[in-house]
Amino acid sequence: MAGQAGLFDLQDRYAELSKSGDPLERLLSVVDFEVFRPTLDAALGRKDRSRGGRPPLDAVMMFKILV
Fold first, then answer.
1. Selected residue with higher pLDDT from 47 and 1
2. 60: left (phi > 0), else alpha (psi -120 to 50), else beta?
3. Dist. CA 18–CA 12, nearest whole Å
4. Residue range of the domain that includes 66
5. For residues 21 and 27, what is the distance between their CA atoms, to the nearest angstrom?
6. 8 Å CB contact between 64 and 33
7. Count of domains in the chain?
8. What digits encode the pLDDT tens for the residues 7-60?
9. In a domain, 8, yes or no
10. Inside any domain, residue 14
11. Which of 44, 36, 43 is nearest to 60 (CA)?
12. How many CB atoms lie within 10 A of CB 59?
């Protein structure tokens, strides 16, 4: 059981990252990613979803992953 994560381990880790100056938090405070949404939606050209299937992932979230 020594390798099992505790209930608040992830929350504590995020707090440590924030205190030490997490570069991702700084990037989110500087860049407004929603500005890119119209361009990303136009570039992706998603198909008609009336036939069902898995919903597409958010374009802005995927862009953040690439950055």
1. 47
2. alpha
3. 10
4. 32-46+55-67
5. 11
6. yes
7. 1
8. 888 888 888 888 888 888 888 899 999 999 999 989 988 777 777 777 788 999
9. no
10. no
11. 36
12. 19
